Amino acid sequence: MTTNNRQINIESQTENDMQKSHSNKMQSKTSKKLNDYLIKHIAKNSGLPYTNTRMPDNDCGIYGGSYHISDEEYPDFLRLYANEILTKNNEEYLTEKQLDSNGPILIDIDLHFDYAVDKRLYDISHIEDGIDIYLAELKTIYQFDENTKFNVYVMQKNDVNRVVDKNITKDGIHIIIGLQADRITQILLRKKVLPKIAEAWSDFPIVNTWDGVLDEGVSKADSPWQLYGSRKPHHDVYKLTYIYEITYDTDDGEFIRTNIHLDNFNVIENIEKLSARYTGHPSLFHTSEFIKTKESNGTLQTNARQTRQKRSAMNNYSDVNAYILKIKNRDELKDAVDEFLDSIQSFDYELREAHDYTMTLPESYYGNGSFLKWIRVGWALRNIHDSLLIVWVAFSALAENFDFNNISDLYDRWQNMDLKNPYGLTKRSIMHWSREDALEKFKKVRETSIDFYIDQTIKTITLDKIGSDKNSRGCGDFDIAGVLYQLHKHDYVCVSVSKGVWYQLKKHCWIQNDSGTTLRHSISTTLRNLYWKRAQSLMNQASSLNPPDEAKSKRMQENANKILNICTRLGNTNDKNNIMRESREWFYDPDFLQQLDSNPYLLSFNNGVIDFESKVFRKGYPEDHLSKCTKIDYVPLDKEKHKQTMDEINDFMHKLFPDPQLYKYMWEHLASTLIGTSSNQTFNMYVGVGANGKSVLTDLMKECLGDYKGDVPLSLITDRRGKIGGLAPEIVALKGVRYALMQEPQEGDQINEGVLKQLTSGFDPITARAPYMTEMVTFIPQFKLCVCTNVLMEIKSQDHGTWRRIRVVDFESLFTNTPVQGDPEKPYQFLKDVKINEKFPVWREVFMAMLVDIAFKTEGLVHDCPRVLSASNSYKEKNDYIAEFIRDKMIVDPNGSVSKSAITNEFTLWYKSIHGNTGAPSSKKVHTYMDKKYGNYDKKRAWVGIRINFDNEVINSGSDEDNDVDNIHENDL
What we know:
This is SF3 helicase domain-containing protein. By secondary structure, the chain is α+β, with helices and mostly antiparallel strands.
């Protein structure tokens, strides 16, 4: 990238030279204003050290220069530079002198190829592999925690640079890692990553050395850094192409790399962050090891594995169940377990793993008072395979007071276990318990079991291949993907083989993982380290055979060499890409998306899960299949400790709902959103005009519910065609949502009654598909549908099935800077708290705990109150056009009669004059309504005792009892 740090003819430039440079540069699309600024900052004139240089080109009349711009002036200089060069698309040739101690980590990658190469040979996967290599080494240098956050900026040219006179093709990448680093740290970091970069990118046919690829001059600060937007004369400019936000997960000690869209990063406003002299990046503490040694060698330390004597295998390991009832003591039990394990075939390795993980579980799973945990272990084993009864017996026998006479009871209990539980426990559950409660044993079993699968890949390398094919790659990508699966099957799931969509288990939630990036990173870190250890173990065994066996030793060493070849592949970008493609099949779970967030009684928090069916707060489990989270901790309500916050919340709710009926209704309604069942089957409409607290309340609910609060496009229930059943990612996103808030409607928006019923039924499934899905996903909505509105939407239907769902909640308060007491039009006025939202982070855990307590009592049921029903009925009457017509046009007259044709004609004229040309009820509905209210159409072919009011007389359309139009519903017709 950069020019050598030579000051030949630069320090000797005169101000006249600079003036001359300016005049010539005006012909090269540069900036007069910037030139004038630089002339005033020539380093020689100030006698101060230079901070920037300009690269000269005499052929173009571009004169070099050396400038000193103070730290105080530098931000202003960069803004001027950005406005004059980047905004106006001018050309410039400036560099920056690097800082010695507190600048960012700078990486300059120079790739040289044969001249025949005419296109770019690397892609985004190579870049991300390189970044991951740097991040892995940074963990050995710096101390990271949950607050760590920094960016990585990647810059590239548009295309390769073919250099005819040197007969080579050049390409390159500039990378800025937004962490402060001193010079020694940058030099040692380069030394650490260099061999790993060479290995990862070994498929590149470079003609320069790898030492030359990773510019040492930049790490040592011997070379200046090209100022962003500047270029070498006659060369293209480097442009920002990728930005990654890096955070650190303290649970697994891994980085999370998130791609930031370039549209969200304004280069002009953020030009400082792309500067080599920017000092605002995070500054971290070094690790104690790095402080002491300044280098981590990462030597392999492996102890040879002990082998155990194999016992004779049974003809069929499932036959072991027949022997269980004969077991009378621990020795017989041990013999039966050993025979079972020895009989397991390689393709049934999961049975061995189920045994190993089960036996790691601590006494709290089998000792006194452990029944609930103990029986869950049995359920999980039964779900895995019927043959695992022997494992359950062996696990139960770990208890000191185990009675072998009770084995028959265990056998009967095993046979009667229910395997149809949709939330059944699995092997993944046992692994999760082991990891949570016996971590060290879990790790030991995992490493041991993975060695078994690694050995399976070694067995694919035949002796013939070892002896005859020096370049054999050994096992295939599919085999290695199988080992990766064994290593991470409890943490990752692939839900789309064609699209490569992945989920990763974080704590107890399944989080979508972009292209399986963290799993891919594990190939060249965790997985490769396991192969290294296996190779070292083989070599140790080969050298310590007693008695010596030259032939066996040779075979073991050859196998070790083959494993080392696999290690090389595990660091290569293309091989990793191939392994990831094969891994999709291993990790694919076709039912995963269907199961995700399907349990309506579970609500996930950062620190656990509330099960509203059992009314307990507990640990989360993988088989809960949760992807959503409130993103807050659940803190049980302490009425003494939380009194002040509870008082503030209650005051807030009383001001929102001064009417006691509404106050109680809304507490129950909001609490019902925590449970995914729909006992009430209602659609709540929050109605009120201006500054009444609707949006503040929904903001508080969003703060509490996190992922469980969803936004619903208004078109979902107003579109007459409907989106359910097609490509609709916005519907898929509603799976598992508990509180769905619609966009505010406009006057005249009309509800699609069919969709409304489907969304609020609580048992009608809806089907939709997101773009990455190959098949539809079907789920039962768990959300309570709500809308904040100033105007009520139109509902043409008058059937009971629609209107029994409608609940109108009036927001009657007014929050203002000048509240007036005793205002008859606005009786509930309160002083506006402009900082109310700032209280929510303090309120949210307490408010949520208050809602949880209510939900435990009500179980999600909301009791209707007269205020809400009255407002809802009033809304219904405004939308009942036939009832309105009867009130306006029908008069009770004992001598009167009206025919169907007369009613039809008059209703049509009346409806058009008041409501327009669309949306009128059919004539059949009008006639049926008349039958219901005035009796059946009689033999005179008329309704008798009434007549049409043509002259706007005072109307009596019937008795008070008859006026109760709520008795008439379309489902009665």
